[in-house]
Amino acid sequence: MIMVALVLLAFVPAAWAQSAGLPAGQPEALQASGVPGSPGATTTVDGRVLPNPPTPFAGHIDLNALQSVPAWAPRIVPPKGAPNILLIMTDDVGFSAPSTFGGVIPTPSLDRIAADGLRYTNFHSTALCSPTRAALITGKNHHSVGFGVVAEQSTGFPGYNATIGPENATIGRILLENGYRTAWIGKNHNTPDYAQSQAGPFDQWPNGLGFQHYYGFNGGDTSQWQPNLFLDTTQIYPFQGHPQWNLITAMADDAIGWMDQLNSIDPTLPFFLYYVPGGTHAPHHPTPEWIDKIHAMHLFDGGWNNLRDTIFANQKKLGVIPQSAQLTAWPDGLLKNWDQLGDEDKKLFIRQAEVYAAYLAYTDHEIGRVIQAVQDMGKLDNTLIIYISGDNGASAEGTPNGTPNEGLVFNGVYLPVAAQMKWYDAWGTDQTYPHMAVPWAWAFDTPFKWTKQIASYFGGTRQGMAISWPAVIKDKGGVRNQFAHVIDIVPTLLEATGIPAPAVVDGVAQKPIEGTSLAYTFDKANTDSPTRHRTQYFEMFGMRALWHDGWMLSTPPLNDPWNLSGPAIAAPSNAFKWELYDTSKDWTQNTDVAATNPDKLREMQDRLWTELASHQVLPLDSSLATRLVAPRPSVTAGRTEFDYSGRRLTGIPRSSAPNVLNTSYTIKADITVPETGTEGMINTFGGRFGGYGLYLLKGKPVFVWNLLGLKQMRWEGPSALAPGKHTLEFDFAYDGLGFATLAFNDTSGIGHGGMGTFKVDGAVVAEQKMDQTIPLLMPIDESFDIGADTLTAVSPDYQVPFDFAGTIDGLKITIDPPKLTPEQAATLQAKLDASLRNANN
């Protein structure tokens, strides 16, 4: 009897939820169609307990089939009338870059959604990629779901561990369990980097987060020409042999193909497509025809100061900022005015802006193809399309001069204009990994100040957004100014579909949704109604802000967002000053009123600390690039010896490969050369923009270090290897203190040189000193490969995949990190203690 009672309870989700102490309240009545028990029967589900408990067998079982009655459980479908959903978000796009929000870059697809529906002018991100994306797909604040920073900077604190736990089911999982078909196409920046190898685990990959189909790349960015690309959990290389191939188009093709396949199988299947192309995050990789189109428009010839004025006037004409809004001041002394530049500077900077604009226009065009495909299937009327322009403000991670290779900036290398000009004609091709100069980013955030990373100013967090749903939104071309945040999207989708937020998923009680539905704004009668999202905190790298009922408390940055390699601020909890803005009167945070409103300032500070404490924001951490190399629970953690069988092994991500930076190490390969001779890659990590390679070139052994695309160091044997067995060994003796100094907030141990010795069969064949090494980060989209090189070549000696045609009998890599003496550790600790005392005083 006890077992029967338990079984019956499993079939009554509402009763189960109440007995478990979960939220009460009756769900919408279940909607069923077809003859119960028949193959065509469907039903909606209660939705508060997922997966839905199994339906009891409704037939009859006797001894023989002919005397029994079969019955099928009904197929689960969403509530009647629930829309298809197309959730689009671009990357690193400032509020004013697209034409839809006053910019000069043509974005007709975003314009289309705004014209067919609503334009949102007061919508916000978190100021950084992974955090915004985690908040977007969960409806909860970024720290609440472990993404206080990007996945590659995770640390061992609940708000920063880069793990969307089982208590935070994504909108993909919720909709999937309610009968939707789900896909994630584009950037995935929400899988911990230490879980991105073929060893998994895959529960934090899109497929494990509720998305049936995944086509995209893991991590912050990738080349659009030779991307580190995945179909579900399998790395693929569709670009090989196709030099004109580009990922932006390929993702649109895949999105269209997925939707078309569903429609062909069953036009009634509702879909949720989370479509997030990598444009316009660096590298800026548009196709040549788009660069030519933008170049012919001469959009940027007048420079960045003039661009801001043009955009500001456009914004007032469009009504996307109030007529009373003020243009924030240009940061004189921090960034140069256009009229201070020489002709060569202007030439390069115009080229950078044109390539960036081409990338945005190209991305928007491909998004338009996906939207048009929905219309061509006859599904546009009942498709809810949300198009968010950027996951944060325009990026300032290109240095004040820009860079031909984003990896240079992550390693603290800043090139003058003259040194960059040799890449002028190649800017945007696969020969570059480029990023534009900071002043363009500042201009693309007009009328606000600051940029990506800066969570306390709207330049870092204000995103343009357009929403259309022709069957429901009738105020075509309307503008909505209510305050909103990315955490509001999930509750909006749930209200639009009539699906409740689950209380339990996989037996795990769910954290409550923290956002507020925007569905009330769909009604024209609510055009000017008060915002229902009344309080929102912001935090990134120790910078903090709070918006509450029109007031904005802000902390100005202490470090420039393009300075990514410096040490952390010693005590970010009290190092920042406070500013206060009344955004009900001051749309752009132009006038600090903290001095004249001390009581409001104190009230906002107290409220902010409450928000920070309740959303897993503490402890505050201001470190940037140094956090990239913090120890994490990867498959390499704690290991100093790596033995590989020698079988072909490719696509191992940076976090799961031996880290040979800032350390002494040995790479030793035992190989067999066939009678006919051979060449090919034995072991490599990296590619065109930095890394090493051990290979045979026409039989001759070679070891190469590519120092961030700026210099090649080469060791090679004198002649081709004879047939038979050989041992190749590269030994590097590092002459610095290494990563150990970073534990004391000190960067003095990284980027030093050392002696490289290359041996063949025990005999030294080449030896030379490297004066400098890569200090922090290998190329983030490249991989560790054995027996081939799969993405880009580390040297112009060869073309990928450069398979090794001999036999690799074994490969061993040994790491010997520098160790601090007690005296060295004591000195560094004393220095750290002194900086903490000074900060706290």
- Using the coordinates shown, work out and report the CATH topology of the largest domain: Alkaline Phosphatase, subunit A
**Total strands:** 33
CATH architecture of the largest domain: 3-Layer(aba) Sandwich
- Please mark out the parts with pLDDT under 50 across 5 or more consecutive residues, or reply none: 1-26
Q: Would you tell me the overall average pLDDT? A: 93
Q: What is the rounded Rg?
A: 28 Å
The helix content is 10-25%
CATH class category name of the largest domain: Alpha Beta
Structural class: alpha+beta
Q: In total, how many domains does the architecture comprise?
A: 3
State which percent range the strand residues make up. Answer: 15-25%
Protein name: Arylsulfatase
Domain Sulfatase N-terminal: 83-499
Keywords: Calcium, Hydrolase, Metal-binding, Signal
GO molecular function: hydrolase activity; metal ion binding
